Amino acid sequence: MPDFEMKNICKSFPGVKALDNACFEANKGDITALLGENGAGKSTLIKTLCGEYKPDSGEIYLEGEKIEITNTRNAIEQKICAVYQELSLVSELTIAENLFLGFYDVDKMNRVSYKQIEQDTIKLFEKYGVDKLNPKTKVKELSLSQKQVLEILKALNRDGDIIIFDEATSALSEKMVKWLMNIIRRLASEKKIIIFISHRLDEIQELCTKVVVYRGGTDVASLPMKEAKSDQLVSLMLGREIGGYYPVKEDFAKEEVLVSMKNVNSGHKLKKINLDIQAGEILGVGGLAGQGQSELFKCLFGMFPYSGEITIKGRTLRLKSAAAAMKEGIALIPEERGLQGVVLKQNIRENITLACLDKVCTGLFLSREKEKKIVNRGIRRLSIKAESPETIVGTLSGGNQQKVVLAKELATEPDIILMYDITRGVDVGTKKEMFNMTKQYAKEGKAILFYSTDSEELMNVCNSVIIMNNGTIAGRLDRELVSRENIIRISVGEEAI
To answer: Which residues of the chain have pLDDT under 50?
Structure first.
């Protein structure tokens, strides 16, 4: 009998059966991978386990005894904790307040001792070997990578017996991925039940002892990791073979320079940035996390004040806002889709047209015909899986949410596309679609700035790659010099070979 078991779980939403007699087993000391493409039912299963969703039917057993999970608080009380794919942090609260949110120690007068939780925060950093941050720093001031680490610490602080890591590595640098893997191995050695969800097969094969594959809302395979081969896992996930994961690399760059930055500085974040992006070029951005990559993208999208010159399509201008950048034909696929990319409580139709209302309105009046045309084109081109355009975006899988972000930004018909880690938390099939789409836009003459935390993506998708270090461009690799080894070497201050 397994230590933990979910049996015949069913869960439906209007028009969608998310889980169909789904089963899952795990044992203490094992690191069990839960694998499947976006929309396979993984997130619904995890949210059921964590008390966010009530299943329509099915049973959950822990050490042979049936348990009932009524809500999220009850799940935590039963020692079930999760690191979610979409961050659950409160931006306006401090690091310390987020880590202990809902679990503050109070005195007899029901007052919170902020001094105590700040001291406990420092102890938590020390316990898990994390670089210390000021506990009083507000979360909104942190980088995405730092927020991801905080999300992990928040879950670990609950001291769970069942710990779920849902795409917990997706925003981490390679160094911090290794840190997290060591933490997970330590937890497994303490006989915790670990559930690990990732679309990075190399991570799963390196870390996990067992893999359960989901497809179409149910489990289709469960096998020891030592018996699992990459091609086999992909075929099980998709129900078909998949070939040519990365498109054949071609150079579509033209002589015309669409973006030029000369001696651009932005506070302490960007220093003397000089770069050109040609029409048809895919220029990659690499480097260790937090070295100014996010600031570079935001600067080009009018979100940061700067000094120096930015020239767009031959015109030197001052980008003072996102609206000004969009007017110049620039689109940004942002780093945090749930906060910056989509309105989760609105439907697909409303989200896709949000950035191009000028194209669907005549004066004060909305043209339903124009709206329908743009929305249907976006859904078709990005292969968004949903019951209808009226589906609420927050009910979609992470990968389909990302597709909605892309459809929204591409509906503005940009000439310059800033893609910030667009494959974060999406499955292999969706990644392939996104790589092909990126290549197609380059072929059409768009200028593309492409950031990824995965150096293999930079190597296989981009024509050239710039590597950032401490707010500067530390080096540039062109064509045959673009390799994983060279990206890493320049990231740590070495010369390319």
So the answer is: none
